[in-house]
Backbone:
């Protein structure tokens, strides 16, 4: 029986998924391996009837530059009971699987380690190598290396963001835009910076104060008033969805949204439009303070996840896929593929970046102290400062409450 390599994809899609799958497949097929694709993410390992697909060279060649994922994805997270009662060990034994390749974010990587440890206990050691994927760009790769999919998502998000800003200019309206990123503001900041948005709000900005709806709305109004002082009656504010996900339960209640809840009692925040919620609240506050502004919501999310990868990710993901083969042949396991800025491939061991207590990988946040971020804040964004207080009194009685630095407690 041929040695086999199995590939599964977890979490949500990102541009470049098929490039990774195809590059892994082509490289191992050349060495005589059988390449098995598993549909349904980790759920495929905990059922007696996994959905399997043999990937041949022609199939890999057909999908390598396409968006989406040929292998159906899932956010399934196995429980301890799943491991003890439902793990399909015969899947590995009957198909002579020597390597499990997982493509996904931090949860997918952590689960890969659990599976490797479980198989070792069963005296069936199997290598596992993870390929870091997320448009959120929040996996802690060295030297600020991006996770694959981020640059393609940012590029497509910038196309949308640019059109929104042009609409704002043309119609003299404001837009409240929200971009994906549950833990970190990389995508929102990346798109806003590329589009020269006068206001961007990411969770990392609140490093010295608690995130509240009131502060978020006042930051947007600060930009609106500053632009009015400048004689500009249009603009757009980009708000990372991570800001919304960081709100307390009490703050979430203030939105007036009737959330649905998951099996653990947590509100399913991913099912609501953050842009719509923030825009409604902005309209309400503008009406209360008498600020005449028309605003519209735009959500940047699912439409950028399965977009065709740009050249950067086509090259990057090809290297990552070929890197899986290199690390496997070098005897590495329990690691992520890391490709540095000049294209060198090396292992990044999961145990070195996981929290020793929880086993989870902490997210990489935006470093707001860099020149890149500070220059955008100081030179592109528009907001009220003490020098604007007198002019701002034409629009609000208390302009100091809309001072960007005061709201964030950055003084």
Residues:
């Amino acid at each position: 029986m041929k040695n086999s390599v199995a590939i599964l994809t977890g979490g949500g899609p990102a541009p470049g998924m098929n490039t990774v799958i195809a590059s892994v497949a082509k490289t191992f097929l050349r060495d005589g391996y059988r390449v098995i694709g598993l549909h349904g993410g980790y759920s495929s390992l905990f059922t007696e009837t996994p959905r399997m697909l043999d990937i041949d060279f022609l199939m890999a060649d057909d999908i390598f530059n396409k968006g989406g994922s040929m292998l159906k994805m899932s956010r399934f997270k196995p429980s301890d009971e799943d491991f003890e009662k439902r793990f399909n060990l015969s899947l590995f034994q009957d198909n002579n699987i020597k390597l499990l390749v997982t493509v996904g974010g931090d949860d997918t990587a952590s689960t890969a380690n659990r599976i490797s440890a479980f198989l070792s206990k069963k005296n069936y050691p199997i290598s596992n190598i993870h390929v870091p994927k997320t448009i959120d760009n929040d996996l802690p790769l060295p030297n600020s290396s991006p996770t694959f999919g981020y640059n393609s998502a940012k590029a497509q998000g910038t196309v949308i963001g640019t059109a929104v800003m042009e609409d704002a200019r043309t119609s003299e309206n404001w837009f409240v835009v929200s971009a994906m990123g549950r833990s970190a503001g990389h995508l929102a900041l990346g798109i806003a910076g590329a589009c020269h948005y006068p206001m961007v709000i990411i969770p990392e900005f609140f490093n010295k104060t608690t995130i509240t709806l009131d502060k978020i709305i006042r930051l947007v109004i600060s930009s609106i008033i500053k632009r009015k002082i400048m004689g500009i009656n249009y603009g757009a504010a980009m708000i990372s969805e991570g800001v919304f996900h960081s709100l307390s339960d009490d703050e979430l209640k203030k939105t007036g949204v009737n959330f649905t809840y998951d099996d653990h009692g947590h509100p399913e925040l991913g099912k609501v439009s953050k842009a719509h919620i923030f825009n409604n609240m902005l309209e309400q506050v503008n009406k209360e303070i008498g600020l005449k502004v028309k605003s519209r919501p735009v959500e940047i999310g699912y439409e950028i996840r399965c977009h065709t990868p740009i050249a950067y990710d086509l090259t990057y993901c090809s290297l990552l896929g070929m890197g899986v083969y290199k690390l496997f042949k070098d005897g590495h396991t329990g690691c992520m593929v890391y490709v540095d800025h000049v294209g060198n491939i090396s292992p990044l061991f999961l145990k070195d970046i996981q929290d020793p207590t929880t086993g989870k990988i902490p997210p990489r946040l935006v470093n707001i102290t860099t020149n890149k971020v500070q220059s955008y804040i100081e030179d592109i964004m528009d907001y009220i400062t003490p020098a604007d207080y007198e002019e701002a009194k034409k629009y609000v009685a208390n302009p100091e409450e809309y001072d960007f630095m005061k709201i964030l407690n950055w003084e």
About this structure: The CA atoms of residues 108 and 188 lie 23 Å apart. The longest helix spans residues 150-171.
